[in-house]
């Protein structure tokens, strides 16, 4: 057996970090035979972002993806990333939902459960770990790594010991942003190994340029498993190249035993696949040392870019990265990993756009009032008090948050069936993403999106004559194809192309038109781009100034929109409507 084993991340974290998690199952399957024969310890292929992307953008059933990958990878265990009591969502679930989800994931193909908690609160991991142990699969418990005054190697070693006591089969140090420094990592692994006698796996993004050296020192310190990504989907916000690590250890006591020539064939395949997703590429493709301060994880960077573009604030990325550090401190030096990376990142965006904590998301409020678990350090007292008042909470929680959640699977199942769920797996999909699942159920029969819909394709009507200087293309926009002719002088001729089959996808809600609200009264406008999640009061209700009237989902977070006047509320947009910043959404008369 080789002393160092590798887990390749090309089927999950690599494309999540580089191309916004858009890779389709059909683009994964042709490489699976070679991946399965390569000799990896595991292949990470499933987790929250992939699950979300499947139903939100790709019109794919994530459970079907898991089944197909398992069939195509009979020898190599599939690893999934599980957020402890959060599972794949952005809230804590009752214990009965945790049990059902883990059981289903194991049944359909997960062989390694990598379980983590954003707060590193062991209470949030215990139920998921017990459920995974019950399935007989490998249980790996992860430490979310951060560099703050409250995170020392002694703290991390004590966490590893607690996880081992829970029955962990291995420990992962999960470095979401490339913060692990080589020599500090060496000392950290030695400290952990002094307290536990189970394998240690290292997961470190390449974002800051430290990762290859960090993996070298990890092996020297005694780590048994390293996370890498095949070279054509490596570096930038992704991970160290698999082939580089294989060659680095070749002929040494750490030799992985993997064949570089076979790996190069896999890399060649994904090099061509990646070209289809160019429109989703992160601009952070080199080493970005700003992350040593902001600590933003790789996958969050590309999402943050897109979210700022949606808000019309793409030029504020540097201000947001700086603000993230301040928000992280106020939130008790919380490690930045899903969902806390999204919570802190979105709050930082709102702070930059509207002023510090002028608008607090529900998730930020829950985080600083103990509803995600115990934070490493005390949170900002003023922020906590403001959050308690905004959410009308009696007090901050000190117990395990899930202890306050009654069993909920049966109620979720009833709601899911009313929303179109047809199987136990559909019920779990609805549980994870209740606002997105109904649209997916409705449109699932249209079939998955073809990744070719993401690229500009040569038009079948394009002339091949050397004397014809116009260039013709077919451009797909929101599932509809158009002929585009580009002439030398730069003019465009655009016509619909009905002969080319449009790609099927779950339709997005139509954006609200930026039209004027009816005359009279006070108009309430959307402060940010997002989707109207629900009306908090009934149409025509009498509301007070400062009362919450609408909940908007923006950047995956919930934002309460409050009335700025007293009177009767008239809603201008229904739930499910996509709105742009400053669109009128309600009127108070």
Provide an overview of this structure.
Helices cover 37% and strands 17% of the residues. Helix 6 links the parallel strand 4 and strand 5. The chain is of the alpha/beta class and 589 residues long. It has 20 helices and 20 strands. Strands 1-2-3-4-5-6-7-8 form an 8-stranded parallel barrel, surrounded by 6 helices.
**Radius of gyration, taken over Cα atoms and rounded to an integer in Å:** 24 Å
| Poorly predicted sequence stretches spanning 5 or more consecutive residues | 461-517
Strand order of the largest sheet: 1-2-3-4-5-6-7-8
Helix content: 25-40%
Gap from first CA to last CA:
74 Å
Largest sheet: 8 strands, parallel, barrel
Count of alpha and pi helical runs: 20
Strand content: 15-25%
Q: What is the strand tally?
A: 20
Task: Indicate the overall shape.
Answer: globular
Structural class: alpha/beta
Q: What integer is the average pLDDT?
A: 87
Walk me through the topology.
Blueprint: E1 5-8, H1 13-19, H2 25-38, E2 42-46, H3 48-58, H4 62-72, E3 78-82, H5 95-108, E4 110-115, H6 126-135, E5 138-144, H7 153-165, E6 170-175, H8 182-193, E7 200-204, H9 211-221, E8 225-228, H10 242-249, H11 260-275, H12 291-294, H13 298-310, H14 317-330, H15 340-354, H16 362-368, H17 381-391, H18 409-418, H19 424-432, H20 437-443, E9 457-458, E10 471-477, E11 480-486, E12 492-496, E13 522-525, E14 530-535, E15 542-543, E16 548-554, E17 557-562, E18 567-571, E19 578-579, E20 584-588
Parallel strand pairs: 1-2, 1-8, 2-3, 3-4, 4-5, 5-6, 6-7, 7-8
Antiparallel strand pairs: 9-10, 10-11, 11-12, 13-20, 14-16, 14-19, 15-18, 16-17, 18-20
Helix pairs in contact: 1-13, 2-4, 2-11, 5-6, 7-8, 8-9, 14-15, 16-17, 18-19
